[in-house]
Backbone:
């Protein structure tokens, strides 16, 4: 059994009369690509918001590598390696692709790969290293040719790639992707899946919310299903796909 790197206990969030999240227990294991699926409104994004502390839970606790991070802010969590993307991309349209990347990379300059540089290198050397990291990441994402374009000139799919790139500048150990393939054309989706697999093989743990079930089943080692705020199934893709509870709540529905 792999190590649990993220552990969530009794996490709850209500919006008025609506129980958006009520998760008894959730673990993320080292090395895996895990997907979180479920119908619209199931609470997937809210769950991401709670564990990355973009919203506070009403109750419950969150442990990152056994450290209790329940009260940490999202900025500190990112410094500890837990980084997320947003369902609606948050790239800065009026900045260039390069500036978007640089801004993301410099926002955690006291941690990760920059930490050692700051201690030993001059400002010029730090800048050079940041630029190397930006170029490497943009190449990985096939965005290098758009480096000097304004973000607003990118297609919807390319914006998703840039959103991912901005997260990668923070050197995540756990990367939470909220619908990375939504609005992305099939060809770019294939590329993105390859990139996600590649990142995982480099040691980045991935938790992905996604409605594209074929993609989910293809790349996930484990699939967790939410409905009405609760986890209703959890296991290998084949197990989840044939779980009657999942078929009733999600896979069998005509809209999806
Ligand atoms: N800030 C809020 N105030 C009130 N209700 C909210 C708020 N945010 C989310 N909700 C409600 O909580 C429920 C869970 O929403 P959430 O966005 O987490 O679902 P989701 O599983 O991510 O859905 P989707 O697949 O459509 O993105 C929904 O009923 C939603 O309307
Ligand atoms: Mg959502």
Residues:
């Amino acid at each position: 059994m792999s190590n649990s790197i993220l552990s969530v206990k009794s996490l709850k969030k209500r919006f008025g009369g609506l129980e958006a999240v009520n998760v008894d227990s959730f673990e993320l294991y080292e090395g895996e690509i895990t997907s979180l699926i479920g119908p619209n409104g199931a609470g997937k994004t809210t769950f991401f918001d709670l564990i990355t502390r973009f919203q506070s839970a009403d109750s419950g606790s969150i442990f990152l590598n056994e450290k209790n991070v329940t009260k940490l802010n999202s900025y500190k969590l990112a410094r500890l390696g837990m980084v997320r993307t947003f369902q609606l991309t948050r790239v800065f349209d009026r900045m260039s692709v390069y500036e978007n990347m640089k801004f993301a990379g410099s926002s955690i300059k006291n941690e990760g790969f920059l930490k050692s540089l700051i201690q030993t290198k001059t400002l010029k050397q730090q800048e050079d290293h940041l630029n190397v990291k930006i170029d490497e990441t943009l190449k990985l994402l096939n965005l290098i040719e758009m480096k000097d374009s304004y973000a607003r000139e990118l297609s919807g799919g390319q914006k998703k790639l840039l959103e991912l790139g901005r997260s990668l500048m923070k050197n995540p150990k756990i990367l939470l992707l909220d619908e990375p393939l939504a609005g992305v054309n099939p060809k770019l989706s294939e590329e993105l899946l390859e990139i996600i697999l590649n990142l995982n093989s480099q040691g980045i743990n991935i938790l992905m919310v996604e409605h594209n079930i074929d993609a989910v089943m293809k790349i996930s080692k484990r699939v967790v299903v939410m409905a009405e705020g609760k986890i209703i199934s959890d296991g290998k893709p084949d197990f989840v796909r044939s779980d009657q509870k999942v078929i009733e709540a999600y896979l069998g529905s005509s809209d999806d």
Observations:
- The mean pLDDT is 91.
- The domain at 4-251 is CATH 3.40.50.300 (Rossmann fold).
- The first strand starts at residue 4 and ends at 15.
